[in-house]
């Protein structure tokens, strides 16, 4: 599949780049996408939630009232969950939410996500460029030239591009990542994906295995 290469002004350079069909033109596997996104979101959870249970509450251990004859339920401790300030029953405990997923399934999910964007005409290939200084205004002009300034966008770099990254940092709805940081969730979370030409080799090499 051949796709036109644009410059950073959004104009056609007259060149075309060959995209691998096995990465950008497969039949999307929705279940693989689901599994990969589920794993990514699970890994974002810190798992540090904690509530004190009965044994961890600070309080007297004396028996509150006599066992019989009060006409009310038995009560042996102020730390009981039925009293205000008592421990919590089956409260959350710290845990690890990490999930395992085969590398093959993850690659399939990412190929499926990229293929969806290609099918929706939401994938742009832009020739590599550098910004002389980190300027948000110049980055907005770049998105405007592609017609995606008001939509969620993901810009994928081949490697470190400090000025481009810093220029995007103050803006909501857009994200700049390197090819090695690309994942299924980021692809699908963006309305449009912009791949700098230099990132294609690494993406196709990693996902085409």
In words, what does this structure look like?
The protein has helices at residues 21-24, 30-43, 103-119, 136-146, 162-168, 184-189, 199-207; strands at residues 2-6, 12-18, 123-126, 153-157, 174-178, 192-196. The chain is an alpha/beta fold and 209 residues long. It has two domains: 2-45 and 101-207, Ribosomal Protein L4, Chain: A; 49-96, no CATH class. Strands 2-1-3-6-4-5 form a six-stranded mixed beta sheet. Strand 1 and strand 2 form a beta hairpin. The mean pLDDT is 93. Residues 51-77 are annotated as: Disordered.
Strand order of the largest sheet: 2-1-3-6-4-5
Q: Stretches where pLDDT falls below 50 for ≥5 residues? A: none
Number of helices, where a helix is a run of at least 4 consecutive DSSP H or I residues: 7
N-C termini distance = 18 Å
The structural class is alpha/beta
Helix content: 25-40%
Strand content: 5-15%
CATH class type of the largest domain: Alpha Beta
Overall pLDDT confidence = 93
Shape type: elongated
Largest sheet: 6 strands, mixed
Q: What count of structural domains?
A: 2
Q: Can you count the beta strands?
A: 6
Secondary-structure element order, as H and E?
EEHHHEHEHEHEH
Protein name: Large ribosomal subunit protein uL4
GO molecular function: rRNA binding; structural constituent of ribosome
Keywords: Ribonucleoprotein, Ribosomal protein, RNA-binding, rRNA-binding
InterPro entries: Ribosomal_uL4 (IPR002136), Ribosomal_uL4-like (IPR013005), Ribosomal_uL4_dom_sf (IPR023574)
